[in-house]
Amino acid sequence: MAPPVGDGLRSVAQAREDVGAYLDVLGAARSATLAERQAWDAVLVGAIVTLALVVVLLGTLMWLALESWVIKPAATLTKAVRTVASGSIETEIRPVGAGEIMSLSLHVERMRRELLHHMEDMRLAQQEVENAHVMLTDQARELERSNRDLEHFAYVASHDLQEPLRKVAGFSQMLQQRYGDSLDDRAHQYIEFAVDGAKRMQELIKDLLSFSRVGRSGEEHATVDLDEVLSQVEADLSERIAEAGATITHDPLPTVRGEPRLLHQVAANLLSNALKFRSPERDATVHLEVRSMRTAWEISVVDNGIGIEPQYADRVFVIFQRLHPRTEYSGTGIGLALVKRIVEHHGGHIWIEPTQGGGTTVRFTLARTVTSGGGRRTSTERAQSTTLG
């Protein structure tokens, strides 16, 4: 049997009421959710705004701190450094800022003070150099005056001093010849002493003149073949070479620029010394070695004589210095000093070394300005030695 129509309508009405009540509940829940969401949105916006304000505030504080502690002190320090660098080094760099900036400013100030100290030292050194230059100028004038006096002395020595010495020697010999029969042995001995002293004084004056005239003769430098110079010296000393039974050999000698007369004196003095100071225990030999260097020739005179002790190697170049009594070896003590002066006048230097097995090696240098003249010889000729005596 079908339900009554009235019950169905009531059921529909009840369902509508229930749906409406449910929708009301959903609407209330939705409204509450929206309200809560809006509240959280407001909180979030507030938090963001607050955070932005905090960031801006912190950034401002940091900028102010950076400007106060770093930028301004750094700018002040830079300005002070530029002032010092522009030449006002006496301007003090005061400490600025804090921390590393202050430490940096202190280091810069310390550097400025050290630089100022060094500049003061340089100023004093420059003043000393200027004073030394003035002194050197004065000394140069004094040396020039002294050289003029020395030249005058050379003139006097060559004329006014040697003439009385010649008279002393001449008249002493005439006295001995004329009154020799009336004089006893002691008188003859005194006359011989006087003559010998006068001759030695003449020789000494002659050597002094040669020493003082080195570099002031006005002679032009010329091309000098040392082979020819040595040949001339050997010819001049031929009697002494033969008397000593000496053997002289040499490497091919170079051609140099210099004063021929002075270079002749160098060779003559060195060979004379080698012959004079020969060893009595063996035959005398002298060898001239040549070594080619980049800017000079090194020439060595090697002998097998009595030799020179190393401690006296420099002393022998001092004028009037003698290592042996005059009774043993003749001479004035000027020879090697004259050689040294001539070598240095030609831009070289000279020294002495011991010779292995005994003897002396005198080495000196001469500027290498001309091609060696020894290149004309063959290898066979270079291996051969020239024996004289």
Describe the structure.
This protein is of the alpha+beta class and 389 residues long. 62% of the residues lie in helices and 11% in strands. The chain has helices at residues 5-85, 100-179, 185-213, 226-236, 238-244, 260-276, 335-345, 379-383; strands at residues 222-225, 247-250, 255-258, 285-292, 296-303, 350-354, 360-367. Strand 4 and strand 5 form a beta hairpin. It comes from Myceligenerans indicum. The chain crosses the membrane at residues 42-66.
Question: Share of helix among residues?
Answer: 55-70%
The total count of strands amounts to: 7
What form results from the Cα inertia axes? rod-shaped
Stretches where pLDDT falls below 50 for ≥5 residues?
370-389
CATH topology of the domain at 221-383: Heat Shock Protein 90
- Give the neighbour order of strands across the main sheet: 2-4-5-7-6
Compute the gyration radius: what is it?
A: 54 Å
Average pLDDT figure: 78
Q: Report the sheet with the most strands, covering strand number, pairing sense and barrel closure.
A: 5 strands, mixed
Query: What is the distance, rounded to the nearest whole angstrom, between the alpha carbons of the first and last residues?
Result: 178 Å
